[in-house]
Amino acid sequence: MHPRQDSPHDRATDEQWTTSVLRLLVVAAVALALVIGPQLARGMLTAAWVLVAATTGYAVAQTVATWRGRPLLPPWLVTVVDGLLVVVGCAWTGGADSIMVAALPLVAIAAAVRGGAVAGRVGALLLGLAYTVAAVVGSDADVPLGERFLAGAWWTGFLVSFVVLVGVLVRLLERQARDAEAERAVRARLVETQRARVDGVRVVLHEFRTPVASLSALAADLAAGRLDGPARDRALTLLADHATHLDDMLDGLADLALTDGSPLGRVRDRAVPLAELAAAVLDAAGVDPARRVATVRPPDAAVRADPQRLRRLLTNLARDGGGLVARLSLPLPPA
């Protein structure tokens, strides 16, 4: 089961929802501050409430649009509007002494995340300059002009530095995400390779049973003296052929340690006499000797192939005959 991976659309939707919720919380915090301390409006309480009402409508509209999946404004324009609203709010609630200055880093973060490192730094610089204007224009008359510019310069430097730090953290998180994804991919490949190797071992072990059973039967017949003359010679030939076949399968099993999990190992082509192959296949398939018909034309015909794979294929075909006469007709030219 593969872990769930968020698409770019899902990540964008999450970012929009987070921004919408933060926007609503900031508006609610400003409204609560004006209720608790009306003096924060610096004598412009009505204008401040008008700004809060307009911002609330804008925040709700953005949230509804995000819920419907159709953003109200392009992301870059949303950041611009948010920045303007915060700067205007700072100008109307004390300038250099405004409590709304705390919302400036949120706008800077949004600019950095949406626009990237360069756009985020430029946005932070412009936001800091706009706040400097708000601090100069909106501060109380008893605040010296130097302090107003100093507050603007301090927040400008802070916002730019903050965005740079955010960019570093974002790159670090992205690198960690890529490393984690690469680690998951490597782990998945290892699991697939191990599964292929286990399946390969099972295939080879299964294929050992047929020649081993035939070897046991031939050895028992020879030991009991039930074979003599041509039958004994043929049994000895089959014993040698089965031994060669087992050796081929052992080579294939050894290759599992060197390959990517192939159940058959490397291909080993060599000249295979078809007459010997036919006799070995019919014997391995358990076909009654009296019912075997093997025709090879010309009699010394051979084919160049991997004997293990070819024998497995033909044995399965002969075995699937269900006890009927197994006929192999192989009119192939000599190898």
Characterise the protein shown here:
By secondary structure, the chain is mainly alpha-helical. The chain folds into 2 domains: 10-187, no CATH class; 267-335, no CATH class. Helix content is 70%, strand content 5%. It has 8 helices and 4 strands, in the order H-H-H-H-H-H-E-H-E-E-H-E. Strands 1-3 form a two-stranded antiparallel sheet. Helix 3 packs across helix 4 and helix 4 (104-138) packs antiparallel against helix 5. The relative contact order is 0.06. The model is unreliable at 1-5 and 322-335 (pLDDT under 50).
Number of helices: 8
Q: What spatial form do the alpha-carbon principal axes imply?
A: rod-shaped
- Briefly note the structural class of the backbone: mainly alpha
Helix content: over 70%
How many DSSP E strands? 4
Average pLDDT works out at 76
The figure for the number of domains is 2
The arrangement of helices and strands along the chain is HHHHHHEHEEHE
- Proportion in β-strands: 5-15%
The first-to-last residue Cα distance is 49 Å
Q: For the report, how would you describe the main beta sheet? A: 2 strands, antiparallel
C-alpha-based Rg, rounded = 41 Å
